[in-house]
TrEMBL record, chain B:
Lineage, highest ranks first: Bacteria, Pseudomonadati, Pseudomonadota, Gammaproteobacteria, Salinisphaerales
The name this protein goes by in its record: Carbon monoxide dehydrogenase
Limits of the Aldehyde oxidase/xanthine dehydrogenase a/b hammerhead domain: 30-141
A Pfam family matched in the record: MoCoBD_2
InterPro entries xrefs: Ald_Oxase/Xan_DH_a/b, Ald_Oxase/Xan_DH_a/b_sf, Ald_Oxase/xanthine_DH-like, AldOxase/xan_DH_MoCoBD1, AldOxase/xan_DH_MoCoBD2, AldOxase/xan_DH_Mopterin-bd_sf, CO_DH_gsu, START-like_dom_sf
Length: 171, 997
């Protein structure tokens, strides 16, 4: 394994939400800082920087991962998907729309990370039980919502994707 | 001023009362929110890191910043000297000779207290430089326990005051002595409420700049108010209010009161920017946040009730000791006085006595935290209600019922002064019991108990105050002191509604939300008043003290939005409506009373032909002033200020109406306790809220659920742990546990609506009820399940296990448990042994050889003899992800060649202190080998203690073990220490695992 000194500047090239992006990172720079401040994708948030809260979760080659526990240089050549890539064109994607319908966020600070975990989860678990959903979400801390709306939104999207008719909005 | 019907249904439904999806979510869900750390900064903005005290109580003797400044990329270091020159201490809410500066100038009084600020090119470099600042401390005895701190012989934090109790007030309302003398029963209870915080997921962010030319500061911070603190900040910076331009970002990632505490860092970073001569940005990290931002108070309360034979309470007596931490930081001692008028809760109790003492200890200063004062008061009061039921052998709900304020008594003046505005507590309880299925819950309990399971039901009834009286805090002063200081009262809310030349409506409120959907609800209110589509209304919630209307009560606290701010939005919108109606009446040549608003149009009643779009009609005020009626000045913008007359200053007898509105919360729950693990499982939680008129039910339910989850955390999981030496031991979210999806069940939420007569829309606040009710409701259920009276939060499995008398299970084979040593901090002790080659004399001599000693101490860079078997060493120690370089004194003593010696070390580093000693015994064993047995003790303070409590035992074991295993290697052999070390290293890997990839 090559050893690089902590503050050696490195060039990092990765695929962010489908687009190739290149930036400078000292070898010790966290992936989260790189995405936010070097590439300007500030939708990924930091709540603890020690791997517990889940706010920084992005998908690395499709797998939900803590951006605060990875160095930018480790992302070289990889596909990084963040909340900014979840939309359906200009419109909210189905998962985002369900979050809105179910009031699954308040301050929205935890939301990006949660959406990324849910996105991966729903790809892999088309028929989740409530317990499955709760288990997946237990890697995230949300201080605002008490989680009810989040669980409901994920279950609803799973059902929709299986072909159940979408629930209408409140009225 | 109760609003009359705000909508004249021209074919559209009312927005208010409708569960409108939130307008905020559109940006937040796309990752397009703009939080403090997302904002564009001025070119040349530098980053700050804060050097913090590793000690709970010490004199700061010297600060050497030379090496820090020498680091490439470091621009400046702000120290106490600069602060003394440019700033003043923060104003304090009680008259005492104590100083609180934004940075320690002579003493440090809590672990994490700012000592210096390094400003550098980036945060990474700034943090490097923190390690290079050399701070020299003279350690003083700390005091952590509030009851100890209140004693006469306790170490004193503020010498000028001479004691740690900095405010002591006695209150008496009615004739409590007489009532107690005449009572059939006197029932008393002592409770301790622990320290915790609602810990928003976004930490503090400050971006500060200093204008040398004007001598003014410009700061953006995710401050939440109250903006009364703007005056405190400006005075600390020695400028007038206009000399501190304070702005808030569009989005803020939660606060729950806690972001009030960023105000101290607004001042600190403003000074850092001045020192650096450049804009400075500081983003607090989680360790900083947990250990040093702010928290709720911990409180010790003795409470007693005078009770009749039937369970009717005639008098209450409180003796409360509130621990505000190391400094009385504004707005403390508000935690006491926010609840003062409401100390009798939901009950009709005529006589009341209270003694309130504020005590300072070597802990983080306290401040706003959701529920503010409520959890502490209701924990005592509602636990007492349950005790009364047990003592009199009554049903706890029956005791609650017998004492409630009568339904026909509203508005009801409580003895300490609260004017309970509206409610019907009896019907709320009946509704809650019926719709929440209380009878069925009791059957579940009975069935569980028949099977021998531990099951209990808890109740609580809570009055939830909202819209704080800015004058309540002065109740901490004596009437004579108040007289001198001048009256303070009221709660001014403000809102602005403007219509632009194209007829678009923009609303501004100075309520600085952190996720409560203010933009959505304000738009709903305006849509109703002006008869417009919700989507057409733009709401801005950023606050700029230089440009926007605001007042000292502005901000997001005391659940003031629905009652005060939304009501003021209604008032401003109504003024616009009145003006547009006058313009329309003039154009249509009818009386203004005939004008109707709806469907985006302005129409004459009963004559549909006379109808114009709102946009066009309102646009007239900009485009064609000549067409306006007399007296209409043109342009369309209205700023309303509103302050309710009911919020008077405290009177000479200390009566204070501490809040404008008083909602009602009735909760009950069933819990089952696992007899093996001690886990408390919520079987069902029912919570009924009467928060007056409901503006958006989905937003309201969100508040209830969030508050419930936090209340559950406070009941079962959360506590800021401190060591006896004042070291902070909950510095990560793996140490300070917050409920996840797996811990939070869905509560049964019920509502009723008794409008407030005192707010424009009849709404009351509802954001804090469950933070007040849930902790004690769960505690009451656990008390019922276990038949215990002494319940202390958080009810963690280990605490519950201890209560039900289950011992800890044996440690797994091969892992002998390490006992925490008595005394200070993260102290621990254990023993182990190693075999090594050579006879005891060889081993003994090797240990006295400095060359060998230097090699066997892990991380030793240098070892210099300073006396007989005494050395100065330079050692780097790492635990998990943090490492620190210690200057250590190493000694070998109690020498009994070749059988025994003692190896000890004391080290200091930027991360705090570490002390350890090992008693070594050498025994000859077969094959010219020696068995080295050692018992060691270690105590670690500072950052290691804060982030590594879970890992310290293992780490100490590894590090001390390494000394002796390396000795074995030096002597030419291996050691038998490999397997457990590997286990521990593996454990570290798991705990602080790399990201899963
Ligand atoms: S910021 Fe990465 S897990 Fe908390
Ligand atoms: S929405 Fe605020 S933390 Fe989850």
């Amino acid at each position: 394994m090559t050893r690089i000194a902590a503050n050696t500047p490195c060039r990092v090239r990765l695929i962010l939400n489908g687009k190739e992006r290149v930036g400078q990172a000292e070898s010790r720079m966290l992936l989260s800082d790189f995405i936010r401040h070097e590439l300007g994708a500030t939708g990924t948030h930091l709540g603890c920087e020690h791997g517990v809260c889940g706010a920084c979760t992005v998908r690395v080659d499709g797998v939900a991962s803590r951006a605060c526990l990875m160095l930018a240089v480790q992302a070289e050549g990889r596909r990084i998907d963040t909340v900014e890539g979840l939309c359906d064109g200009d419109a909210l994607g189905d998962l985002q729309a369900a979050f809105k319908r179910h009031h699954a966020l308040q301050c929205g600070f935890c939301t990006a990370g949660i959406l990324n975990s849910c996105a991966e989860f729903l790809d892999k678990t088309p028929e989740p039980s409530e317990l499955d959903v709760r288990d997946m979400l237990s890697g995230h801390l949300c201080r605002c919502t008490g989680y009810t709306g989040i669980v409901a939104a994920v279950l609803e999207v799973a059902a929709q994707r299986r072909g159940a008719p979408p629930e209408t909005s409140h009225v | 001023m109760q609003a009359q019907s705000t909508v004249e249904a021209l074919g559209r439904f009312a927005e208010c009362g409708y569960a409108r999806e939130r307008v905020e979510d559109n940006a937040l869900l796309r990752g397009a929110g703009r939080f403090g750390d997302d904002l564009a900064t001025t070119a040349g903005t530098l980053q700050a890191a804060v050097l913090r005290s590793p000690h709970a109580h010490a004199r700061l003797r010297k600060l050497d910043i030379t090496s820090a400044l020498a680091i490439d990329g470091v621009h400046a270091v702000l120290t106490g000297e600069d602060v003394r020159e440019w700033a003043a201490p923060f104003a304090v809410g009680v008259r005492q000779p104590m100083q609180h500066w934004c940075l320690a100038v002579d003493k440090v009084r809590y672990v994490g207290e700012p000592v210096a600020v390094v400003v550098a090119r980036d945060r990474y470099v700034a943090e490097d430089a923190l390690d290079a600042v050399e701070a020299d401390y003279e350690l003083l005895d700390p005091v952590v326990d509030p009851e100890v701190a209140a004693q006469a012989d306790a170490p004193v934090l503020h010498e000028g005051v001479g004691a740690n109790v900095v405010n002591d007030r006695h209150f008496s309302y009615g004739s409590p002595d007489k009532a107690f003398a005449e009572a059939a029963h006197r029932i008393a209870l002592k409770v301790r409420y622990p320290r915790s915080s609602c810990t928003p997921i976004e930490c503090y962010v400050v971006i500060a700049d200093y204008d040398v030319a004007a001598g003014t500061y410009d700061v953006t911070a995710n401050f939440q108010g109250p903006f009364a603190l703007h005056s405190v900040m400006a005075r600390a910076l020695k400028v007038g209010a206009s000399g501190l331009r304070l702005r808030t970002p569009p989005d803020s990632g939660g606060s729950f009161g806690i972001k009030q505490g960023v105000f101290a860092y607004v001042v600190l970073m403003a000074l850092a920017a001045r020192k650096a001569g450049a804009p400075v940005k500081w983003v607090e990290d989680r360790l900083e946040h947990l250990q040093a931002s702010s928290s709720a108070t911990n409180r010790v309360t003795e409470i007693e009730a005078a009770v009749s034979a039937e369970g009717r309470i005639s008098a209450l007596r409180y003796d409360q000791l509130d621990d505000c931490g190391a400094y009385l930081r504004a707005p403390e001692p508000a935690t006491f006085y926010r609840m003062h008028g409401t100390l009798t809760g939901a009950y009709d109790i005529q006589h009341l006595e209270a003694r309130n003492r504020v005590v300072l200890t070597n802990k983080t200063p306290t401040g706003l935290n959701r529920g503010f004062g409520g959890p502490q008061v209701y924990y005592a009061l509602e636990r007492l209600m349950q005790r009364i039921a047990v003592a009199l052998d009554l049903d706890p709900l029956e005791v609650i019922r017998r004492n409630l304020v009568p339904a026909d008594a509203f508005p009801y003046r409580a003895p300490a002064g609260s004017l309970l505005d509206s409610g019907n507590y009896q019907s709320a309880i009946e509704k809650g019991a019926a719709e929440g299925g209380l009878d069925e819950l009791k059957q579940r309990r009975d069935a569980a108990r028949r099977e021998g399971r531990l099951y209990g039901i808890g109740y609580c009834a809570v009055v939830e105050p909202s819209i704080s009286n800015m004058g309540y805090i002065t109740t901490a002063m004596t009437p004579a002191e108040r007289e001198k200081a001048g009256p303070k009262n009221g709660a001014v809310a403000t809102a602005t509604v403007g219509v632009d030349p194209l007829g678009g409506v923009t609303v501004h409120v100075s309520s600085t939300p952190q996720g409560q959907g203010h933009r959505t609800v304000a738009a709903q209110v305006v849509a109703d008043v002006l008869g417009l589509e919700f989507e057409t209304i733009t709401v801005n919630v950023e606050l700029d003290t230089q440009k926007d209307p605001w007042s000292n009560a502005s901000g997001n606290y005391s659940s003031r939005f629905a009652g005060a701010v939304a009501g003021t939005v209604h008032e401003a919108a109504s003024r616009i409506r009145k003006r547009v109606a006058a313009i329309a009446a003039h154009q249509f040549e009818v009386d203004a009373s005939c004008i109707r608003f709806g469907d985006g149009r302005v129409t004459v009643a009963d004559d549909d032909r006379l109808s114009t779009s709102f946009r066009r009609m309102a646009g007239t005020a900009h485009w064609a002033p000549a067409l306006l009626p007399e007296g209409e000045p043109g342009g369309l913008r209205e700023t309303a200020f509103w302050s309710p007359p009911q919020l008077a200053a405290p009177d000479v007898n200390d009566h204070i109406n501490s809040s404008l509105c008083y909602g009602f919360v009735f909760d009950y729950c069933g819990v089952e306790i696992d007899k093996v693990t001690g886990r408390v499982r919520l079987d069902r939680y029912v919570t009924l809220h009467d928060a007056g008129r409901i503006l958006n039910p989905a937003v309201l339910d969100g508040q209830v659920r969030g508050g419930f989850a936090q209340g559950l955390g406070a009941a079962l999981m959360e506590k800021f742990e401190y060591g006896a030496d004042g070291s902070f031991q909950a510095g990560t979210l793996a140490d300070y546990l917050i409920p996840t999806t797996m811990e939070v069940p869905e509560p049964v939420i019920l509502h009723m609506e008794t409008p407030s007569p005192f707010t424009p829309l009849g709404a009351k606040g509802a954001g804090e009820g469950n933070n007040m009710s849930t902790p004690v409701c769960i505690a009451n259920a656990v008390a019922d399940a276990l038949g215990e009276s002494d319940i202390e939060l958080p009810l963690t499995p280990s605490r519950v296990r201890a209560m039900i008398g289950i011992d800890e299970p044996d440690a797994p084979e091969g892992l002998e448990p390490i006992k925490p040593a008595a005394g200070s901090g993260s102290a621990l002790q254990a023993s182990d042994s190693v075999d090594m080659p050579g006879d005891p004399a060889t081993v003994f001599d090797a240990m006295l050889d400095p060359k060998i000693l230097a090699k066997i101490i892990p991380g030793c860079h240098d070892l210099q003899a300073v006396g007989d078997n005494a050395y100065k060493a330079d050692v780097t120690v790492g635990v998990g992800m943090i490492r620190a370089r210690y200057k250590a004194d190493v000694n070998l003593s109690e020498l009994e060649p070749p059988h025994a010696l003692k190896l000890s070390g004391v080290g200091r580093s930027a991360m705090g202190t570490a002390e350890g000693s090992a008693r070594v015994r050498l025994t000859a064993i077969e094959g010219n080998r020696t068995r080295l047995d050692y018992d060691y003790e270690a105590a670690i303070g500072g950052k290691f203690a804060a982030v590594g409590a879970r890992m310290l035992q293992g780490a100490a074991r590894v590090i001390i073990g390494q000394i002796f295993s390396r000795l074995a290697v030096e002597l030419g052999g291996g050691s038998n220490a490999g397997s457990w070390m590997k286990r521990i290293v593996d454990l570290f890997r798991r705990l602080f695992g790399r990201s899963k990839k």
